[in-house]
Structure formats: C-alpha cells, structure tokens
Amino acid sequence: MAAVSRVRALKPHAEIIALEKGPWTSYSACGIPYLVGGEVAKLDDLVARTPQQFRDKDRIDVRTRHEVTEIDLDRREVTVHGKEFGRTLKIGFDQLLIGTGGIPVRPPLPGIDLPSVHGVQTLADAEHLLRHATEGRAARVAVVGGGYIGIEIAEAFVRRGLRVSMIEGSDQVMRTLDADMGERVATAIRKAGIDLRLNTQVTGFEADGVVTSAGRIPADLVVLGIGVAPNTALAEAAGISLGVKKSIAVDRRQRTSADGVYAAGDCCESYHRVSGQRVHIALGTVANKQARVAGTNLGGGYATFGGVLGTAVSKLCSTEVGRTGLTVREAIDAGFEPVSQTITGTTTASYLPSARPIVVKMVAEKGSGRVLGAQIIGEEGAAKRIDIVATALWNEMDVESMSELDLGYAPPFSPLWDPVLIAARETAKLV
Amino acid sequence: MAAVSRVRALKPHAEIIALEKGPWTSYSACGIPYLVGGEVAKLDDLVARTPQQFRDKDRIDVRTRHEVTEIDLDRREVTVHGKEFGRTLKIGFDQLLIGTGGIPVRPPLPGIDLPSVHGVQTLADAEHLLRHATEGRAARVAVVGGGYIGIEIAEAFVRRGLRVSMIEGSDQVMRTLDADMGERVATAIRKAGIDLRLNTQVTGFEADGVVTSAGRIPADLVVLGIGVAPNTALAEAAGISLGVKKSIAVDRRQRTSADGVYAAGDCCESYHRVSGQRVHIALGTVANKQARVAGTNLGGGYATFGGVLGTAVSKLCSTEVGRTGLTVREAIDAGFEPVSQTITGTTTASYLPSARPIVVKMVAEKGSGRVLGAQIIGEEGAAKRIDIVATALWNEMDVESMSELDLGYAPPFSPLWDPVLIAARETAKLV
Fold first, then answer.
1. Using the beta-carbon criterion (under 8 Å), do A351 and B392 form an inter-chain contact?
2. Which of B152, B351, B395 is opposite residue A31, by nearest beta carbon?
3. Of B408, B363, B410, nearest to B176 (Cα)?
4. Taking Cα atoms as reference points, which of A10, A42, A368, A71 lies closest to residue A236?
5. pLDDT of residue B138 exceeding 80
6. Which of B410, B421, B371, B394 is nearest to A424 (CA)?
C-alpha cells in the first residue's frame, strides 16, 4: 500500500487495483506483541489506514478478501479468487507490483497444524493470541525460537501473568548478535521469568505440550517465532527469478526479472551495504523503503533502493538491544578480518540517578579501521544509540574518525564521551 | 587534565606539572544544575578525579591553589602565585598547554559585585548556589539569560520549590535555535512555572532585586547565565595571537602562535565543519576532544582536531531540546541559501502509551540538498536523535540520502519512519 500511494501521488489518473487476501490493509504487524501484552488498547489501533481510507483518499480500488492465485505474464493478467462471493475473475495489468510479504516458518513436524500452534504475523493471529492472553484459555505458553519476535511475544505473555517457556534449538538466543552479546540477552530473558531452554530441538506438538529433545514441555498455547520465509509461490510459478533464500530477485529499482513487474517487502531480497551481498531481511522499515522506491518507479519516476545495514532494535522488559552491520562472525563469513572491542558504560552522566548500564561492542576492519558493525545491550536509552553507528556505517566511516563525532552532550543524556564514541576509540587502538 | 593524562600515556618519563588556581581538578561543571536541583546527592559526585588521583596514578605534579600570573615566552617560564603559602615562584617549561577555560560574562552594571549575584561555573559557585537552594536563604531567584545554562539552573531552583524569574534581553530564549523553535522552548519555560521576561534589559542589581527596563524584579539571589567568554588575559599578555571573540587562535593540532605552546578548551577557538568558520563554542565535549588532540601532539604523537558541528542537547523538565549544525539564520549568515521544513511526530509508535511528541526542523542547502543542520524539540526520547543528524552532517550527506538511512525500528523506540528521516524526506521536496 505504501507503493500504490506513491504511484497515486505521481500518476493522478492511473487505474490502481490493490488485491489483498485478508481483510486488512496497512497494519503494524510489529505492534502485535504490544497488543497481546496489553499496552495497545485495541486491535484497530494497529491499523494505520483502512481499505476505505485508501479508496476515499487515494482513489485506489482496494479489494480485500481477494486472493491472487496465478500471475500470467504472457497475457498480463492475474487470476483472483474473491472469497466473499466465491467468484474467480481475471484482471489485466500494464504494470504489476508483488508485495506478498513473508510467511512464518512452520516446520513439518507432527502436530504442527493443531489449533494451539500459532504464528505472529497477521491481525487474525493477533486476535487469537489476544483471546488466549485475556480469556484464561491458556496458562502455559511455549514460544519456539529465541529471535526478536519470540522474545517480544514471550514478554507480552509474561505481562499477562502467564507462565512462558522459550525453546531455542541452538546454543544462543538472538543469533543476529555475537555469542557473547547473545549470552547477555539470555540472562535478561531468564531474569524476566521466562523458562529458557537452549540446545533444545522441537520434535512435535501435542494439544497440551511441545515434544522436544529434552523431554516434554507443557503448554496450552504454542507460538512460532522461528523466522519468516519470503512468500514467493505465485512469483515462482509465474517464472519470475528468485534470489537469496528463494526471495524474489530484484534490481536497485525493485524490478524483477519480468518486464514491468516489481516487488517490494518481505517477499524480495535486499542488498547489504557492508557485506556487498544479497540478503533477505524481513523488517518493516526495509519493506516500506523498498515500497516507496518501487512506487516511484511504477509511477514513472526514478528511484533506487540504497540497501540495508541490518539495523534492528528490540526490547525485553527493561533490557534494550540494538545491532547494525556485521557481527564478528558475519564479518568473517563475508571475508573481512575483523577486530572488535566491548566497552561498558552508562547511558547518562554516571553521577545522575537516571544512569543505566550500557554495553557496546564495536566491530571494525583490521588495517583500514572501517566500521563493520556494532551491538548494544543496556537499559533505557541504550538501544537507539545504534542509529549513530548505522549512520556512520552508511557513510563508511572508520572508527578513528567516528570517535571524533560531535554528538550531543548534557548530563541527563550522556556521559561526556558517549559510550558509542568510547567503543569506537577503544576499537581504533586494535586496528 | 585530559591533555596531561594523554601526555603521560605517550611519555612515561616526562616531567609534567599542572597548575590550577582553584582547589579542584576534573569536575563536571555541566553537572552543577543537577547538584543544585537535588538529583546529584553531593558535590564530590561531580569530581571525576581528584588532584591526588592524578598524582598517584599518572605521576602528575598537580599544584592546586597555584595561580599563574604571567607567561614569559622568551625565558620559557611561568610565574606562579601559591595561594596557600603566599609564595611566588617561577617554573620553566619546554612545552606549555594553556587550558584556562572560560569565565562567565559579568556585565559592568551597578551592583554586579553584590554577594547575591552568582555565576554557574566553579564548584565554589555550586556550593554557594546549593546553600541558597537548601538552607532557605533565598525564596526568589532571578536568572539572567535564557540560554542552556540559564534554563538548566532555573529548573534546578524550581525543583527546590523556589520562585524563579528568567530575564532575557532579546525576544527569544535559546538563541542557538531559530525563533520558531525558540518560541516552543519559551512555552516549556512558562509551563514549568518560570516567570519569563523577554525583551527585558537588566540595568542594575540590588540586594533584593534586579533593576530592569521593565521595572524591578524581586530576587534574593541572582544567577548569571549570559554566556562564557574565553579566559585569555594571560595568553594575550604573553603576546599569543587571539582569534574569534578574543579566544586563543589555534591550528588543527591545537598549536598557538607561540612555538611549543598549545591551547585547548573554552579558552580557544574551534573550526566549524559546516560554515567553515572559526567559532568559539564553550562545551565540555569540545574541550575534552581538543585536550586529547593537544595531549597527543604534546606527547610527540600526531593528531588533529576534526572540528565542531555545534551539537548540543538540553532538558527542561519533560521538554528535551537538541540542535546541530546551522539554523536558518546562521546558514544565511554563513552565505548559504537554505531551505527548511518542520515536521511533528511521535518518539515511538503512535499507538503505544509511551509515545511522546517530537518536532524536527531540518535545514538543507538549496540545490545540493546538503544537510546544514537540525533542531529538535520534544519529550522523552526526542533530543538524542540529533546525533543521527550530527553524524550525517559530519559526512556531508544530503537530505535525500539521509532519508534512506537504515535506522533501528521497533514500536517502543520509533515510528516505522523515524521522525528525523521524515524531516529529511520532507525537506528533500523543497530542494
């Protein structure tokens, strides 16, 4: 919908049809844990714009409960199944945007289709989880996966007073961090009262529990947080080229291999500015930026997508986590020789009662000193400092210059030397 | 002291003497308002390192209560008056660092030397103001000047339950902002219960009030917050060249016009990276960075100071203010043709109860779109976002590229598009 709004701005007279399988458009999937946890009052608050608003304001022919079942590139038409009236129709197009998003990974294990096993993706999921959280239908929740989504939804159920287990197959939660930083997040998870089980393989689901390599874990509700795969069945069937992790391959203008066909969001790939590699990163910010680029190009303008850094922030109770660029492990995998340094500090002047702990791990390239990435864990005021590193990374700064940055200082906001600058300075000594 | 610590690290055997007029070394003057306001428990908490710690750890011969009265560049010696024993002695040097700092501006008005009229600079000032705040010696405080220091100290007295007036000679508080943003700060000042008097000239001081162009304002205590001038009498008398606003002229290595003589901190000038002009900015972050550069060069290493952007953050009750680079007014004065756009948003996803208002004004160069500066006013979580703009400015980004930055997003931290990115995007439309 971000793309078609852009097209409408550029082409006031174009006929624009938006086909959506479900009943909603433009909602914040990232907000679902806060709805389930009770911080967001009602489901409608997560809806940024309704289909009717798009119809009225942008004159976009939004058809909800309309599922596209086929894309025919030769005839330049899509086959659409209208669920409400049970009709199937064909709609022609000059240009097509594929924004089919991602689908939560559902491992083909016994019991995976039980009604107690859920994803955290659509507002329908949200409604279902919310009912479980509030109507006493579940007392014990098992969250499968220790990534961002798993952690955020686990906290939501803890807030509701439910007993929560988190089952992670590997030896580390939040695998977008290095192991040493992941360990700090594990500590925060346990401190939040969540029963964390590392190195535990799920082998099946039952109505009242999860079967694992370490025995049975009782659960009335299971939430899957093991990642999102690009939803590309339609594109693949149409013969459109796929790229990394079977996401739709796109160029810098979000064009697919098919003429006049664009893709944006969780269904397609991105370019990583630091590693130089194609990556699949399913994040709302990336999706929205790609959509604007696609929309501009669809509308006859010119725009390219600048790529991603893999920046992300997350929160678990009072613990904040931020990361950008490459971890040490990722840097090595991408062919760099990294150096790294971890510093501890405070978020404000240490003499103020508002001072909170912050740990910054900075990763740089040996020799050149080029910033490769950073990871931050701390309390209030810690995580968003990752934006400083993201902006430095975007500009290919080295740690030495980074340590000279003229950042804002006053005692309630930062120590005299911001922890991020200290991390850069200390890392520069190892280059 | 930051410089001599650096020299010690580089030259383990150098003889280093530090001469300090007062009794303290290395304290946070910026922390004084928080001591007066009661957030910092005791004066000692503001002392980062005592003279004895410098003697013990860095083997620096720190002599407090020793006032340098003359610098003789030909004989390469300084004349020092030891206050404790009433002695005057001469100390030779091979290299000299001048770090005489700034002195609060004290206008030559009738009554300026009354004991009720104070600056906010030294720990002696801090002790005095603290006594007034806590021992019932003053019920009414007049703060002269509506800049950062004036605002912070005014809030401190409000916290203590005192009645506070703020007298500002011009039509705007916080003149490092454009008038439209200054107006928002004025609203916050009034909302905090401070009696703000704009366009009011102070003509004299009396024991129980301030005489102004708009009548007499009762006050048991007067605090001067009308800026800091470089303390350069010694340097000037020695024949060292002065630069902008009579601050000590230095090159990029912090060298003065005199061979082997360096300067750092509030006594000397800086280079502004955006305007390209020499400026005098009295801020702790700048002073500390300059000191490290001076120390490295004094120690036989090589370092240059990267310059300043004029980044600053401040807080008044729940209102946060941030600024970096040039305002519209400053951009015009520096010869640019600026465009600017102001946007309003929220600090977190708008559907969360933690969402707070934020206003971002972005200034860019017409034609090139180069970022020239930004001003932010908002509530919790607003001001430190100025660091994103500061890092973009440092790298001479344009607003279009800036709007593409991959910043951290999760509902408790930011809307999907960070307000800073929206401001950049909207400003790009005017370029």
1. no
2. B351
3. B363
4. A71
5. no
6. B394
State mean pLDDT over B335-363: 97
Neighboring chain B residues of A310 at a CB cutoff of 8 Å? 406
Predicted model pTM = 0.95
3-state helix, strand, coil in chain A (%, to 5): 30, 30, 45
Question: Residue A197 has what pLDDT?
Answer: 97
Q: Which residues of A touch B409 (CB under 8 A)?
A: 30, 283-285, 311-313
Structure token digits, residue A114: 């039980």
Each residue of B162-193: pLDDT tens digit?
999 999 999 999 999 999 999 999 999 999 99
Residue B391 to residue A386, Cβ atoms within 8 A: no
Please confirm, yes or no, whether A267 is among the known catalytic residues: no
Per-residue model confidence as pLDDT tens digits over A210-230: 999 999 999 999 999 988 999
CA distances from B312 to A359, B102, B143, B285, B389 (A): 24, 18, 21, 10, 12
Neighbouring-strand partners of residue B212? B202, B215
Of B177, B178, B160, nearest to B223 by C-alpha is B160
Contact (CB<8Å) A351/B40: yes
Nearest to A390 among B306, B309, B407 (CB): B407
- Name residues of chain A where pLDDT drops below 70: none
- The four Cα atoms A382, A387, A388, A392 give a dihedral, to 10 degrees, of 150
Q: What is the DSSP letter of A64?
A: T
| ipTM score over 0.90, yes or no | yes
- Show Cβ contacts of residue B294 under 8 Å, excluding neighbours closer than 6 positions: B3, B6, B97, B253, B254, B262, B263, B264
Considering chain B, what is the average pLDDT of its residues? 95
Go through chain B and tell me how many residues it has.
Answer: 431
